[in-house]
Design goal:
Layout (H helix, E strand, L loop, with lengths): L22 H7 L30 E6 L3 H16 L3 E2 L8 E6 L4 H16 L3 E6 H5 L10 E3 L7 H9 L5 E2 L4 E2 L2 E2 L16 E5 L1 E2 L10 H5 L3 E2 L2 H13 L4 E5 L14 H9 L7 E3 L5 H4 L3 H8 L7 E3 L7 H7 L5 H14 L4 E8 L6 H14 L3 E6 L16 H15 L12 E9 L6 E5 L4 E4 L9 E9 L4 E5 L22 H8 L9 H6 L7 H7 L1 H18 L1
Parallel strand pairs: 1-2, 1-3, 3-4, 4-5, 5-6, 9-12, 12-13, 14-15, 15-16, 19-21
Antiparallel strand pairs: 7-8, 10-11, 17-18, 17-20, 18-19, 20-21
Helix pairs in contact: 7-8, 10-12, 13-14, 17-18
Enzyme class: transferase
Membrane topology: Single-pass membrane protein
Organism: Scomber scombrus
Length: 565
């Protein structure tokens, strides 16, 4: 094939002719070159800088949580990490750029509220990230299509997911946390969090359970039992008290089953925690199912009698009919439940037993329901959670023959009327009690305290009472509360060993920085730690330097820190 050139060039030197300038002549010629300045491009007056709107960590986030205290704890952790990463948490959904919706799958109404909130967010053109048990259990639901999802064991990665959602991407993190093949309790307990109430720390001691109740959808989301080690829980309690907390709630899907997967048990954990509780501070136990608490009744009675532990236990019975309990696969009979209640009432004088009842479970007859009525009449539970049965999709109970809706409604009404027919606290009037003040009443007229039996005591709203153990004389009793008058000669006792954090303040930042070797601003990002090893980068740098320069700065900071260490 002929060459495109007319003549062949043997070597590169053949391209230089004798008439070409020498290198020395070319260098000399540069001195006569006069540079010309370019005209600067005129800046448009009306031109708007759009960079900030695309930089994650500069937006406002509104979070809504439904469901149990475990879910509330998860919500507190997610809010804390987002705030520590530069996002602004807001109580006003209308001003938020993104809605973080933390769902509950226990009952249909809770999921309906969740679904409606997603719809409202779309109508208001808000970015949406969903979390909690609903998307974990059913991520393929039509109304979740295209949405970013944070799994119940992935809450430590909320910043990553929100970052991507802000940029218009869809991310789904639904995996389980494991160590050497063993499933873990969840994310680290020392992550930043924003406590809804700075005086109360909610600690999840385990996730999942050992049961397979036929009506339960939560099992699909939380899975089998996975417990946190005792030492991690004790350290979390210790950290909480150092941040001014005066009340700790232990929570999980079944606290009674704690430790069975890691070779320990609930009493062992409780005795260790009691050692860390300051005088005047209190510990509240979460829900426990009857089968697992039966093994520890003697130790549990001793613990509930401890002065720094509320004499309160939530033990769901669900039905007083053995036939119904068998269909529910509750793994106990009604005599087991009675044994728990009778033993604790005998060994822990004044103990409060709270319970749950489901009305209209599939196959429940009038005789079955009457047994439940008789149980309530016998024990007159001061705290009773009454739930009309809702078939949850994907559960065995949803495939069973259902009790007619009007019958379920009537039974729920009848049981509610029975519950409201007695006043469990009338005999308390005239007593002198100690109560720990931690909250404000819904009507903002009183402060809310709790006595040794975790009974709600309304006291005058005086600023010096908040977070204090006070002595009161009970002068009035209602269905759900007592009213107490502070004893004049008695001084409020401060159980907190440190000043409480301000409402909305992020906890755990010091521990986060120490854990990751970070020395700098308290606004440094936990997500930056995840992305760049032990180096974190303030979100404001991104706004000032631009993304490219910020990455260079991050790299430089990383190198400097490595040299420092």
């Amino acid at each position: 094939m002929p060459s495109a050139c007319d003549s062949m060039i043997e070597d590169i030197e053949d391209m230089v002719s004798s008439s070409d300038p020498t290198p020395h002549e070319r260098q000399s010629a540069r001195k006569s070159i006069i540079p010309r300045s370019r005209k600067k491009k005129e800046i448009l007056v009306n031109e708007e800088l759009q960079a900030d709107s695309f930089i994650p960590g500069t937006q406002k986030v509104w979070m809504k949580t439904w469901g149990c205290s475990h879910n509330n704890s998860d919500g507190e952790y997610m809010a804390g990490q987002l705030a520590a990463s530069g996002y602004k948490m807001t109580d006003d959904p209308s001003e938020a750029d993104l809605w973080l919706l933390n769902s509950c799958t226990v009952k249909n109404p809770a999921e309906d509220h969740f679904r409606n909130s997603i719809k409202k967010a779309h109508e208001q053109d808000k970015k949406v990230v969903v979390a909690g048990c609903v998307p974990q259990a059913q991520p393929r639901m039509d109304y979740l299509k295209g949405l970013s999802i944070i799994g119940v064991q992935q809450i430590d990665r909320v910043v990553e997911v929100v970052d991507e959602a802000v940029k218009g991407h869809s991310v789904r993190l639904l995996g389980q946390k494991k160590d050497g093949g063993r499933r873990l309790g969840g994310a680290r307990l020392d992550l930043p969090k924003i406590r809804k109430n700075p005086l109360i720390e909610i600690i999840s001691i385990n996730t999942g359970c050992l049961n397979a109740c036929t009506y339960c959808k939560t099992k699909h989301a939380r899975g089998d039992l996975a417990s946190y080690p005792v030492e991690e829980l004790v350290e979390r309690a210790r950290q909480s008290f150092q941040e001014g907390v005066c009340e700790i709630w232990l929570t999980s899907e079944d606290t009674g089953a704690y430790g069975r997967d890691i070779g320990t048990d609930l009493p062992t954990l409780l005795w260790r925690l009691v050692e860390e509780i300051p005088e005047g501070a209190m510990l509240r136990l979460g829900m426990t199912n009857p089968p697992y608490i039966l093994e520890h009744l003697e130790e549990m009675a001793k613990i509930l009698n401890h002065p720094r532990v509320y004499a309160f236990l939530h033990v769901p019975v669900q039905s007083a009919s053995d036939s119904v309990l068998m269909d529910m696969k509750r793994e106990y009979c009604i005599d087991d439940f009675k044994r728990v209640v009778d033993y604790l009432k005998e060994r822990v004088p004044g103990v409060t037993i709270a319970t749950d009842i489901i009305c209209g479970f599939p196959g429940e007859t009038e005789e079955d329901f009457q047994e439940t009525i008789d149980l309530v009449k016998c024990y007159r539970f001061p705290s009773l959670f009454i739930n009309q049965f809702y078939p949850r999709p994907g559960t065995p109970a949803a495939k069973m023959e259902q009790v007619p809706a009007h019958v379920k409604k009537q039974r729920t009404k009848e049981l509610s009327q029975l519950f409201h027919s007695y006043n469990p606290y009338d005999h308390k009037v005239g007593e002198r009690q100690h109560a720990l003040v931690t909250e404000e009443s819904f009507d903002a007229q009183y402060y809310v305290a709790h006595n040794k039996f975790y009974e709600q005591v309304l006291v005058p709203k005086r600023s010096e009472f908040k977070g204090k153990m006070i002595e009161v004389d009970i002068y009035e009793a209602g269905k759900h509360f007592l009213k107490g008058q502070p004893v004049e000669d008695s001084k409020p006792f401060t159980p907190s060993i440190a000043a409480p954090l301000e409402k909305g303040e992020v906890s755990g930042l010091m521990q986060e920085k120490m854990a990751n070797g970070v020395h700098g601003s308290a606004s440094m990002s936990s997500s930056s730690v995840l992305l760049m090893g032990s180096c974190s980068l303030d979100r404001e740098v991104l706004k000032k330097l631009g993304v490219g320069l910020a990455l260079a700065a991050a790299l430089l900071a990383f190198i400097v820190e490595k040299l420092y260490w």
